[in-house]
Amino acid sequence: MAAHVAGPARAIKTTSLLLFLLLLSFLATVSSGSLQSDALLRFKAGLGNNAALLTWDPAVDPCNGDRSNWAGVLCTDGLVWGLQLEHMQLAGVIDVDALAAINNIRTLSLMDNRLAGPLPEVKKLGKLKTLFLSNNYFSGEIPAGAFDGMGSLKTMNLANNDFTGRIPISITVLPRLTMVRLDGNQFTGRIPEFRQNLLRAVNLANNELEGPIPKSLSHMNPNSFSGKYI
């Protein structure tokens, strides 16, 4: 008789545990969606001329599975994994701290906008694989350690801005970097050695660089170093 009673009791416990786990999963999903929304809305608040982001509605989750409800937001399994906000005339400030609250962000592309000022502290986004900030109005020197700790970064495009000073040494040691574009800026000084085994494409043209092309880059396309100052 005791064994007969134990069977249904065990089944009830198992069912209760499953329901509890499902509830936790649901609450985690809701919480994640809310955190993502809050972070993205903080990021949006720092931008000027953000009419292109009208679909960023706090009443709607950014992601529905792999589908995005918000313009320029890239989603997978209900999570934001990237931003592709290109050709939107965006201006203002990039709130990196807001983006850092999105744990799964891997891609940040803000090409062809009107963003200005110094390079944002992108090293706070340590899991980025892709960083595209080309064709904006960023300016000033980039700190030597600006990319410290960005061990996942594979592609970087900072072309056609107004960056000055030396090429930051932290770019030259990013272990997974395969492509980097720094052309169309005002970088000065000698070209440093790039120590990445995976590096396949480099463009440093149209800067104010001087001196010889380093041995580590000697196999690259010569047009990547064109410009009257090299």
Short description:
This protein has 230 residues and is α/β, with parallel strands linked by helices. The chain has helices at 2-45, 96-100; strands at 47-48, 63-64, 67-68, 73-76, 79-84, 91-92, 107-109, 116-117, 130-132, 137-141, 155-157, 162-165, 179-181, 186-190, 201-203, 208-210. The chain is 21% helix and 23% strand.
Keywords:
alpha/beta; globular; seven-stranded mixed beta sheet; 230 residues; 2 helices; Leucine-rich repeat, LRR (right-handed beta-alpha superhelix)
List the helices and strands and how they pair.
Layout: H1 2-45, E1 47-48, E2 63-64, E3 67-68, E4 73-76, E5 79-84, E6 91-92, H2 96-100, E7 107-109, E8 116-117, E9 130-132, E10 137-141, E11 155-157, E12 162-165, E13 179-181, E14 186-190, E15 201-203, E16 208-210
Parallel strand pairs: 5-7, 7-9, 8-10, 9-11, 10-12, 11-13, 12-14, 13-15, 14-16
Antiparallel strand pairs: 1-6, 2-3, 4-5
Explained architecture:
The structure is a single chain. The protein has 230 residues and is of the alpha/beta class. It has one domain (2-225): Leucine-rich repeat, LRR (right-handed beta-alpha superhelix) (Alpha-Beta Horseshoe), CATH 3.80.10.10. The protein has 2 helices and 16 strands. It has helices at 2-45, 96-100, and strands spanning 47-48, 63-64, 67-68, 73-76, 79-84, 91-92, 107-109, 116-117, 130-132, 137-141, 155-157, 162-165, 179-181, 186-190, 201-203, 208-210. A 7-stranded mixed sheet has the order 4-5-7-9-11-13-15, covered by helices on one side. A hairpin with a 2-residue loop joins strand 2 (63-64) and strand 3. The protein is globular, with a radius of gyration of 23 Å.
